[in-house]
Description:
Two copies of one chain form a homodimer. The N and C termini of chain A lie far apart (62 Å). Chain A contains 17 helices and 16 strands. Chain A is of the alpha/beta class. The first copy, chain A, folds into three domains: 3-124, Rossmann fold (3-Layer(aba) Sandwich), CATH 3.40.50; 132-253 and 350-383 and 432-441, 2-Layer Sandwich (Dihydrodipicolinate Reductase, domain 2); 258-343, Orthogonal Bundle (Domain 3, Saccharopine reductase). Chain A has helices at 15-28, 39-46, 62-70, 84-93, 106-109, 112-117, 132-147, 179-184, 203-206, 232-235, 254-264, 281-286, 296-303, 308-317, 332-343, 385-402, 417-427, and strands spanning 3-8, 30-36, 52-56, 74-77, 97-100, 121-123, 150-162, 189-194, 197-202, 211-215, 219-225, 243-251, 352-364, 367-378, 410-412, 435-441. The A-B interface holds A 188-189, 191, 194-195, 197-202, 204-205, 209, 230, 263-265, 268, 270-271, 273-274, 283, 286-291, 332 and B 188-189, 191, 194-195, 197-202, 204-205, 209, 230, 263-265, 268, 270-271, 273-274, 283, 286-291, 332.
Amino acid sequence: MPKKIFIIGAGLSSGSLIRYLLDQAPKEDWQIVVGDMNLALAEAKIAKNPYGKAIFFDVHDSKICEEQISKTDLVVSLLPAFLHYKAAATALKFGKNFLTASYVSPEIKALDKEIQAKNLLFLNELGADPGIDHLSAMQIFDELKAKGAEILSFKSYTGGLIAPAYDNNPWNYKFTWNPRNVVLAGQGVAKYLQDSQPKYVPYHRLFSSLEKIQIDNYGDFEGYPNRDSLIYRELYGIENIPTILRGTLRRKGFCESWNVFVQLGMTDDSYPIDHSESLTYADFLRSFLPKSDMNLKDQLEKELHFSKQTISKLDWLGIFEPTKIGLEKASPAKILQHLLESKWKLAPKDKDLLVMQHIVEYRLENKNYQLFSTMTLEGNEQETAMSQAVGLPLAVGAHLLMKNQIQGKGVQIPNKRAIYEPILKKLVDFGISFAEKVLPMKS
Amino acid sequence: MPKKIFIIGAGLSSGSLIRYLLDQAPKEDWQIVVGDMNLALAEAKIAKNPYGKAIFFDVHDSKICEEQISKTDLVVSLLPAFLHYKAAATALKFGKNFLTASYVSPEIKALDKEIQAKNLLFLNELGADPGIDHLSAMQIFDELKAKGAEILSFKSYTGGLIAPAYDNNPWNYKFTWNPRNVVLAGQGVAKYLQDSQPKYVPYHRLFSSLEKIQIDNYGDFEGYPNRDSLIYRELYGIENIPTILRGTLRRKGFCESWNVFVQLGMTDDSYPIDHSESLTYADFLRSFLPKSDMNLKDQLEKELHFSKQTISKLDWLGIFEPTKIGLEKASPAKILQHLLESKWKLAPKDKDLLVMQHIVEYRLENKNYQLFSTMTLEGNEQETAMSQAVGLPLAVGAHLLMKNQIQGKGVQIPNKRAIYEPILKKLVDFGISFAEKVLPMKS
């Protein structure tokens, strides 16, 4: 009887995961079961592979849930984060290991003791970000600590972008992931630590709080702080580090132009625009500007001091045109997303680019050093870079767990050597690896 | 048997209301019953007046609620807005009229048909703002319409401030009302109509979206837009007006300085500051500023371009000092409020100032005019201006309703002549009146 791996969800990020596991199935004697509410989607991913099986699966249906999970050997859940719990509790009931690429929820965290008592591993945050960032950062920290280095600063930036060969618009950006999340990104407050001082950046100052980032072979980027970096001190075991910042990467110049939307209030998702269906994009823009006798472009440039370059990027989007929006009772964010989707859409042959860079400053034998550890990954003919980067860590994690080659029990994230080391090693075979560069610093 | 008026709540804004009704009680043959969870507070307001009676009252206790409301002739509720419903439903059950100074809630609105069927009047928004603003604006509109004028623009500003004789700090501001509401004021989006175009102002641009306002005998003020002005087109029966804006008044120069807190993110109430108990105010301020080698004042002036005048106002607050905050797990807004309360506190003899100004543009017989209608009211020895302005419209409304001198049924706000006219007329006796000035405009 082959062993069974049960994958819940056949959506966007499942391709690389399913392909990897099906490839390994003959050698490892596995059956790969893929369950989705949309059976056709699951069938398309299995593509009649004799080692795979597509099933209808609804996590809300307790009978199906128990039936499928009870007869598998490992559960990999790609459900939206808020739906994991039911599958996790069922996996616990039947004594099955459990993998996700999502942040640990308080509900799953609360199962920790029972999971430990049954000697199971529920490994979360094993995707791209969170995931590859944890694996690679922890390896750097553990190696530096082993050498006796003192870690002074950790900055880590990740960005999902368009690959250079397909980068053909003035924003140097296309939607390679959920457009809504891109439009709403950064709302709330960003928190980081600078020279032992917590810093708080409100949303309206986020896109002017930039750091310049250079990536070999890829050129100039910029990073803005991302949500709460302070909590990573504890997660990464670097409680006393003076500086820590996690951020999001965009191509150089993007944030200055994006900031127009933020400054004017056009990313607000909390209220509908009056009569949005009958307005044009120019009307929409004008409704965020004070009264003026100037035309829209002059007003943005002369009254609000946005740069000519930014205005030309806005122009490219068609936002000055008398084109009807055509969306009813839409929020500013929805209208903006609608316009951007028409312009930042991936063409069928377009490939995406995932970039991650850790910048670590440390002190060793009375000298200071700056370490750059950089991963770049482009989409290929089968899969986007994002799908590879989310799916392959999960796939490798599943592979190693099935062969008892990673250790750990309870609710975990991959911040322990026994987990991150074998996974990182195997990811190299799939093009997911980091290039390191160390420069001496003035002390 | 005297008729009974039942006042629920003996708090901040009840003084003028209770005093007025007790004064009228002998002549009108009334008994004034004041109920509060805090019996001592109710007793203090009655001050052993033989026409008054203080009782313990808890709106959540159905028995007490029914007992008291069933034997009264009119209910005036000063409860917090979210607690009105229970009292309103009980008043409906026993067929009693009902007055509040709060915005009409959807729950109370839903009782409208039943209230009409019993021929009762539930009159809301009969305080200062909402209240006096409705009364006075509607009188202007109805008079202009009667003359055949076309109304082109309505702007209305209200501010609760410190009276000039007691205005002795560089902010020209003290807390004359709920400090928390002042710190959080304006969060969300402000909506108004300008030349038939809806305008949306995000919070971070609110305090730089100012209009200069002059008040005779009081000098220079500035107004910023307040929440949703668009809904007032329907409430005021001016659906086709091209320009409408309701706003909040501050003394000239206040908003530029207040904007420091908004721009830096110091009015955010959504997250706690790390270790707030052990930080100083200077640390608190620094946590919202990017890394810099400058001192705090230079950084605010040279990097962030705040004016010297603003920085000197911040200095007066003591925010550059190494004084411990001493609040645990406090949000930025709570910390800021704590500092401001120590500086903007009313002294025992201080008197407040309430200012309201309507600016109406209209066209009559091919000429355009600008009408300024202005109310100013200062606190007196007994009561603050705010308590007078909230309590006296309710008191006069109660008086007239008891004598059947205002007409109307169902759930109402005072936007109909049969309601606003007799109330406005009587308010004049208590110093609440508007001075009008009409200037011709260039057409």
